[in-house]
TrEMBL record:
Family that this chain belongs to: Belongs to the TRM112 family.
CDD domains the record matches: Trm112-like (cd21089)
Signal peptide positions on this chain: none
Ranges in coiled-coil conformation: none
GO biological process, one term: tRNA methylation
Protein name stated in the entry: Multifunctional methyltransferase subunit TRM112
GO molecular function, one term: protein heterodimerization activity
Organism, as annotated: Saitozyma podzolica
Amino acid sequence: MVRLITHNMLTCHVRNCTKDNFPLVFSDVELVVREAPENLDFIRRFLPKLDWAALVDTARSLGDESLPGTQPEEFTDEQLRALHHVLMEMHVEEGKMTCRGCGHIYHISNGIPNMLLAEHEVGR
């Protein structure tokens, strides 16, 4: 499943695509929310790996407004729970992810993104 925790690390790898290749932009999305066991310690440890602005923009594009626009220096448990929901419970089942840099479209089917490239698209 494409969760936002995974999406926050995906970039376009098309040959010569080095500008505006993160984050990939969702469209035509079928979004499913699935409860996941809460582990706020894991969320705290994962914070340094997140691109906060990209996460907030993506969450908002999917209809979730629960995250503050700027990353708090100290998170309350309520904010960590909202972050857990966005990262772990929002699943994109169907849709597309498009690179803003080159326009390449990565299709998502049954929760699995097709990140494979044609031979002529592969960077060397």
